Amino acid sequence: MGTPLEISAPAPNSSPAVAAAAPRRAPDPPATAAPKSAPAFIPTIAAPSLFEEKIENDSLERIRDDIGPNCTRCKLHKGRTKIVFGVGNPKADLVFVGEGPGRDEDAQGEPFVGRAGKLLTQMIEAMGLRRQDVYICNVVKCRPPENRLPEKDEIATCSPYLLRQLGVIRPKVICCLGSCSAQTMLQTTEGISRFRGQWFDFRGSKLIATYHPAYLLRNPAAKGEVWKDLQKVMAVLGLETPKRK
Ligand code: SF4
Fold it and tell me: pTM of the prediction?
């Protein structure tokens, strides 16, 4: 079956210049790199004590309040315009987790609204869902400067809020978009091509990692691999592939 994720490839790298030392977002390995073996780790979350402590009667509203409108807990606050909390169905069966807001998201305060976001919306619709049926959020809630990847200390500071969000929503499936998200959730440094498309248990949810839409914009040939991953998600959720007009 072909992939319905048809979107024209953009001009390469139209983002702002990147500092030499800062790795760009979604530096996923080539889609042709076949997984060699399952990663030798058990996905456990060590750092986020907020999740471990299990806050009674937690809610998305409470998490948002706890973050506050002017969070300065990590250095990402310095360059942000808006905190990007997350959006979608608070009772979603499916949650997409990206790495962090980009320029458009920072301006609008909503995750995945730029070009990569449009592709994610296409991916969701290809699954027979609407954007408002799922929940979409990121590992960090403020935009890393120059679209660099979030750094360790930033992830350690902000990811407990993500884990609380997931603890409240309790989705059937968590789909990590890109290396940063997958490595954070699975607490591993393995490259995503080692475990992309494999299932993991995560606190009662099933977790799968696939490539970030921004990576697909630069590497449209990888869309087929992502579509295979999404079809696995659809199978778990009992979704049928919509008939193409
Ligand atoms: S990224 Fe998270 S912890 Fe850091 S300033 Fe933003 S909301 Fe606060």
Answer: 0.83
